[in-house]
Amino acid sequence: MAQGVWTIAEQRDGAIRKITYEIVSEGRRLADALGQDLTVILLGSNIKEKAAELGQYGADRVMVCDDPKLEPYTTDAYVSVISGLVKNGDPAVLLVGASVEGKDLSSRLSAKLDVAMAQDCTVFAIEDGNLVATRPIYAGKAYAKVTFENSFPQMAAARPKVMELNEPDASKSAEVVDAEFTLDDGDLKTSVVDVLKDESGKVDLTEADKIVSGGRGMKGPENYKILEDLADLIGASVGASRSAVDAGWRPHSDQVGQTGKVVSPNLYVACGISGAIQHLAGMSTSKVIVAINKDEDAPIFQKADYGVVGDLFDVVPALTEEVKKYL
Ligand SMILES: Cc1cc2nc3c(=O)[nH]c(=O)nc-3n(C[C@H](O)[C@H](O)[C@H](O)COP(=O)(O)OP(=O)(O)OC[C@H]3O[C@@H](n4cnc5c(N)ncnc54)[C@H](O)[C@@H]3O)c2cc1C
């Protein structure tokens, strides 16, 4: 019988990504609710020393797969290794992060394992010994509760920055195990030739704690300077609506929404963004939403916790000056 909760860790260049701590924290809560163990799978090259710290967030065991072919991430290699481990280990629940990499991995992995999976979940619970996952549907207009009928592992991906992070407990550590796995060259159909890094030093939107976003109301690319000034001051990243991206004002990597990035920062400041449903789909799980718009009937105000009706070219610089007084 399927037993235990497993999560798949995400690392880049040997550094554990924040989404990993989030799903380990959530995995711990689910494992406790089931009265079962939590195992984390960590793949990479020379990665073993990072394994023990996952115990501080609640992992009982970390299975390390160490191989030069597992660095950097490729879908082929990771799916090949993880599917083998899951088939042997037979976990009841398998959690992945719904990050860019996690979405890529989990969709292929679920097909390989021939199990159902729920993508981009915002809430998990255990009911009658089974996983119940809540996920947004219709671009966030409604939420569906999903169960996995006789499909094991019950596989789901958690939206980044939504799951509550456990306080790391330095007195706890995980059992670290070298996993036995096979990685046939025949399974490796792609190889990474080059990795082009974002040299801006800015935090990726999906991991940002605060985001200041601008839409068509910014009127041109040069005006983003006022958002960047505010963002630099409060340690935020700058995002954009699709209109701004389609106009060529901002790169696609800045786009928030249904066809952009899904973000859940603690603070989302929407400037000159109307609040179309496709934009809301990408940011409505933000903890605090501030909207600045000159149209008092703009739909964004229905989602906002704080709204300023006014011209953003007056309001944003004034806000920046006010913030300076507190720093
Ligand atoms: C399949 C599909 C996928 C899509 N995916 C996305 C997506 O991922 N992300 C996304 O954002 N959109 C997406 N869209 C587009 C979406 O429907 C909207 O067209 C878009 O979000 C509108 O962008 P906006 O709010 O910047 O522009 P607008 O809707 O034109 O709104 C501009 C706002 O700025 C305000 N404004 C103007 N000047 C000022 C000023 N000086 N001060 C203050 N306020 C001012 C206006 O009152 C207005 O509310 C998608 C659409 C489709 C069909």
CATH superfamily of the largest domain: HUPs
What does the average pLDDT come to? 95
Q: Quote the CATH topology of the largest domain.
A: Rossmann fold
Cα gyration radius (Å): 21 Å
Query: Tally the helices: what do you get?
Result: 8
Low-confidence spans? none
Question: Order of strands in the sheet with the most strands?
Answer: 7-11-6-1-4-5-12
Decide which structural class fits the backbone: alpha/beta
Ligands bound, unique: flavin-adenine dinucleotide
N-C termini distance: 57 Å
Q: Strand-and-helix sequence, N→C?
A: EEEHEEHEHEEEEEEEHEHEHEHEH
Secondary-structure blueprint:
Layout: E1 5-8, E2 11-12, E3 15-16, H1 18-34, E4 38-44, E5 61-66, H2 75-89, E6 93-97, H3 100-113, E7 117-121, E8 123-127, E9 130-137, E10 142-147, E11 154-158, E12 175-178, E13 210-214, H4 224-234, E14 237-240, H5 242-246, E15 267-271, H6 277-283, E16 288-293, H7 300-303, E17 306-309, H8 312-325
Parallel strand pairs: 1-4, 1-6, 4-5, 5-12, 6-11, 7-11, 13-14, 13-15, 15-16, 16-17
Antiparallel strand pairs: 2-3, 8-9, 9-10
Helix pairs in contact: 2-3, 4-8
